[in-house]
Write a structure and sequence with these properties.
By secondary structure, the chain is of the alpha+beta class. Helix 4 packs parallel to helix 5.
Length: about 200
């Protein structure tokens, strides 16, 4: 007996700007999912875009970019969908990468060798794509570095400026690292000083 349809519920989150574009993109994305072979009974709730508040951003580097931060919005779509099988379900998971995914039913699966092999094949294909992208990025970086060296060799003054900037950044990173280490040591010493000593029991 074949497995029944897989009923699922999942969430897809998105961040960007402007707010109207975010809403439009999420709607198009849900339409794309509904067109995937083996997907049916799509129900969606798209939540209105929300401006990202300063307190929600923990990264100090992003906080400093006030002009960018004020223009960023976040939104998400709650989607319910039925899948004919594991292949169509994993297609959506791999291609759209939901932030949350829940299988409502069935509680158990009857997995054939061919089904399991299909899942492994999909994972392998995805890993090969990531590896291909990583290798291409590495090759592009090497080509850019070689080109920059060629340009800088013809303009020594530019090289001096860039080296000076790199040294400044390195010094800043070292200062931040030293400050963090000093703070951690201070907190550790403070904690140890508060820790009660052992008392000997009287016989």
């Amino acid at each position: 007996m074949d497995n029944p349809k897989i009923k699922t519920s999942f969430i897809i989150e998105m961040m960007g700007r402007p707010a109207e574009h975010l809403d439009e993109t999420l709607n198009k994305l849900v339409e794309e999912i509904s067109s995937v072979k083996g997907v049916s009974n799509i129900n969606k709730i798209i939540h209105p875009p929300k401006l990202i508040e300063e307190k929600e951003i923990k990264d100090e580097k992003i906080k400093n970019k006030i002009d960018v931060k004020k223009e960023l919005y976040t939104s998400f779509a709650e989607i319910e969908a039925d899948f004919d099988g594991l292949e169509s379900m994993f297609t959506v998971v791999f291609n759209y990468m939901p932030s949350h995914f829940e299988i409502i039913s069935p509680e158990e699966f009857k997995l054939r060798n061919s089904d399991f092999a299909g899942i492994i094949a999909a994972v392998i294909i995805r890993l090969h794509r990531y590896d291909e992208i990583a290798k291409k990025m590495s090759m592009d970086r090497i080509m850019i570095e070689n080109k920059l060296r060629e340009i800088f060799s013809q303009h020594p003054e530019m090289m001096k400026v860039l080296q000076a900037r790199a040294e400044e950044e390195k010094n800043k990173d070292n200062q931040l690292g030293n400050k963090k280490t000093t703070t951690e040591k201070h907190l550790k010493a403070k904690t140890n000083s508060k820790r009660p000593g052992k008392t000997k029991k009287k016989r």
